[in-house]
Write a structure and sequence with these properties.
The protein is α/β, with parallel strands linked by helices. It is about 40% helix and about 15% strand. It folds into three domains: about 200 residues, Rossmann fold (3-Layer(aba) Sandwich); about 100 residues, Rossmann fold; about 25 residues, no CATH class. The strands form three sheets. A six-stranded mixed sheet has the order 4-5-13-10-11-12, with helices on both faces. The chain starts with a strand and ends with a helix. Bound molecules: pyridoxal-5'-phosphate and zinc ion. The site of pyridoxal-5'-phosphate (PLP) has 16 residues, from α10.
């Protein structure tokens, strides 16, 4: 792991050893992993990467862990799907969907948890913990089970039932907290300083956790034939994923793995019911004002996003935009993606698709750009969001006559029969 220089403060650049710390002692800025890219230049090539496993671990040399014994359920190298039918529907040209619904526990969180728990084990931790809006809970519980770590997962009490069951089944401790995610997160920050033997993946292990999201940039570039897209659309909860996709694209350029043509435009997607970063963007504000979330996109419901300011900075620097969409638009977005591309996304995916529609109709995402949207979670986890919106188009007795009557009533179906 000679390629990791340590942790660097994002504000004052003070360096620290690569330990379980996340805040700068001098300025309270967040810490980020720093690499020796000069030494890596030329030693990491497209060929060395291609020789690796068909998972996110093919990029292990670009992550802050040793690849020898990763905590892995088979995460990553998810399909990048050309989405011509969706593109046609909204008037775009080259459009791709990064389908992260296909990860082991059904969301992109498997990427960040894989890195976090691999690092936690390297640092000697045997207890995994997290504050979660749902998907992180699934992923931490599953990865901990895989390697026999004990887990403590804290979630807001009003989470989707599926996400509770698909976390509890892995046998760790699942604690529902009577409060919002932001309350849960505050509690976990306090717990992390009390229980030094717990690896809180998104608190004291956060700098390593965050790096896992870079693989979303690496895979897209490789799957496009080692080319960067012109524009990507990314959902924002804490804002970590968006900032690390940006970091991933820039590292590929620094390492000479892709040709630099122009900066990748990065746009952000939020739900109106929890849109502190979109609001700051719209107002041209220089800080992100916390809100109280009320949206069906519970996986994105962070009212006080830790990386909100940094996400804003990335979007502004790269020439992207941030938009927010209503719950009704989220449901339309889920249905549009399913109907055109056969991909069933959770509410966060609905936010991303609906935001794409909005940015395309505003001329911000353009038909002459190559565009990638990140679909980060599986629809089977949030089926209740669609209750009452989709279902059987008819209920009939099991007779030919009943089908004939049905076709007789419906001109389109009659045409289909001929
Ligand atoms: C957590 C999550 C996100 C956003 O993650 P941040 O890094 O906190 O912005 C996006 N999509 C899904 C499905 C998630 O679970
Ligand atoms: Zn600092």
């Amino acid at each position: 792991m000679g390629h990791v220089l340590g942790l660097r403060c994002r504000e004052c650049a003070h360096m620290y050893a690569a330990e379980a710390i996340h805040v700068c002692e001098f300025c309270f800025g967040p810490l980020e992993v720093a690499y020796d890219h000069k030494a890596q230049h030329g030693t990491i090539t497209r060929e060395t990467i291609a020789a690796g496993p068909l998972s996110m671990w093919r990029y292990a040399d670009l992550l802050p862990v040793s690849a020898e014994s990763p905590v892995d359920l088979g995460t990553g190298f998810t399909p990048l799907v050309r989405a011509d039918r969706l593109a046609a529907e909204i008037g775009l040209g080259e459009l791709w969907v990064k389908d992260d619904t296909r990860n082991p526990t059904g969301s992109f969180k498997d990427r960040v948890v894989g890195v976090a728990l691999t690092k936690a084990r390297e640092l000697g931790f045997s207890i995994a913990a997290c504050a979660s809006t749902g998907n992180l809970a699934n992923s931490v519980a599953a990865h901990a089970a895989r390697v026999g770590m004990e887990s403590f997962v804290f979630v807001p009490h009003d989470l989707e039932e599926v996400k509770l069951i698909t976390t509890a089944v892995f046998g760790g401790h699942l604690v529902a907290v009577d409060g919002s995610y932001d309350d849960v997160n505050r509690l976990c920050a306090e717990l992390a300083s009390e229980f030094a033997s717990w690896a809180f993946v998104n608190v004291n292990i956060r700098p390593y956790y965050a790096e896992g999201s870079k693989t979303l940039a690496f895979e897209v570039a490789e799957q496009l034939g080692w080319r960067l897209p012109d524009h990507v659309v990314v959902p924002i909860a804490s804002g970590s994923q968006l900032t690390k996709i940006d970091k991933g694209f820039r590292e590929l350029t620094e390492l000479g793995l892709v040709e630099f043509e122009r900066e990748v435009r990065i746009s952000g997607a939020q739900a109106e019911g929890c849109s502190p970063v979109a609001t700051a963007f719209a107002e041209g504000a220089d800080h992100v004002r916390p809100v109280k979330p009320a949206t069906i996109a519970k996986s994105l419901a962070i009212g006080n996003p830790a990386d909100g300011w940094y996400a804003l900075e990335v979007v502004r620097r790269s020439g992207g935009a941030i938009a927010a969409v209503t719950d009704a638009e989220i449901i339309d977005g889920i249905r549009l993606l399913a109907r055109t591309e056969g991909i069933f996304a959770e509410t966060a995916g609905g936010v991303t698709v609906a935001t794409l529609v909005k940015l395309a109709s505003a001329g911000i995402v353009r038909a002459d750009e190559s565009v990638v949207i990140y679909i980060t979670g599986n629809g089977l986890k949030t089926v209740e969001a669609l209750a009452g919106h989709v279902g059987p188009s008819a209920t009939i007795p099991p007779t030919l006559q009943a089908v004939a009557d049905l076709l007789g009533r419906d001109g389109n179906l009659r045409a289909a029969k001929r």
